[in-house]
UniProtKB/TrEMBL annotation:
GO terms for molecular function: serine-type endopeptidase activity. Pfam families: Trypsin (PF00089). Gene3D superfamilies: Trypsin-like serine proteases. It comes from Lasius platythorax. This is Peptidase S1 domain-containing protein.
Length: 97
């Protein structure tokens, strides 16, 4: 789940959430060739997903933040969105708290 608003629209006044599907890494690489192991991809239907202003927002699974919105292209038109995998940086996070 994460914040989102329509391209060219205004941000919402309340927190937004959406149910996403984790998208297989190999399939995601066919769209995002720069994908690395510290990324997680999600996919949903066109018109939903990460968009402008969402960067840095959380990807939460069962109450635990597992990702941070990183990039996607184009915005919310049925292509996978890419998140930074929090677990890949847990040592750095603990050392810098």
């Amino acid at each position: 789940m994460h914040l989102s608003f329509q391209l060219g629209g205004n941000p919402p006044n309340s927190l937004q959430e959406i149910d996403l599907i984790i998208y297989p890494q190999q399939q995601c690489k066919s769209v995002h060739s720069e994908l690395i192991n510290s990324h997680i991809c999600t996919l949903t239907k066109a018109g939903e997903g990460a968009c402008h202003g969402d960067s840095g927002g959380p990807l939460v699974v069962n109450g635990t933040q597992v990702g941070i919105v990183s990039f996607g292209r184009p915005c919310a038109v049925g292509y996978p969105d890419v998140y930074t995998r929090v677990s890949s940086f847990i040592t750095w996070i603990i050392e810098n708290l």
